[in-house]
Amino acid sequence: SGIASGANHGNWLGGRNGVRDTAAFAEFRRSILKRDRWTCQECGDHNHEGRGSRIVLHVDHIEPVCVTPDRILDPSNARTLCFECHKKTETYGPKVRHYIRKRREEG
Q1: What gap in Å lies between CA 60 and CA 82, rounded to an integer?
Q2: Which of 54, 65, 68, 87 is the most interior residue, by most CB within 10 Å?
Q3: Per-residue pLDDT of the chain (107 residues; tens, 9 = 90+)
Q4: What pTM, to 2 d.p., does this model score?
């Protein structure tokens, strides 16, 4: 399928919960949210007084971790997106399979 798995995947830590469950990733995530001023880099939405409801912010890897596992903690490969904008990316969830297939066909 072309998706890295097991020891070849960026989240692999010998069968544990993966890099995303480490203090290093928690700090990386906080640093990206802070760098992006807690604002979705796509639509510009952010939590503020008077908004009425809270938005959920995600740290999105521009190049998916399964494609470039060595860039999981690379700030230049990360951006803050709200959940709605993240769902629209071509690499969100199972859509990453199509993204990988398309990349292979392009070159």
Answers
A1: 9
A2: 65
A3: 567 666 676 666 555 556 777 888 999 999 999 999 999 999 999 988 777 788 999 999 999 988 898 999 999 999 999 999 999 999 998 898 888 888 888 87
A4: 0.77
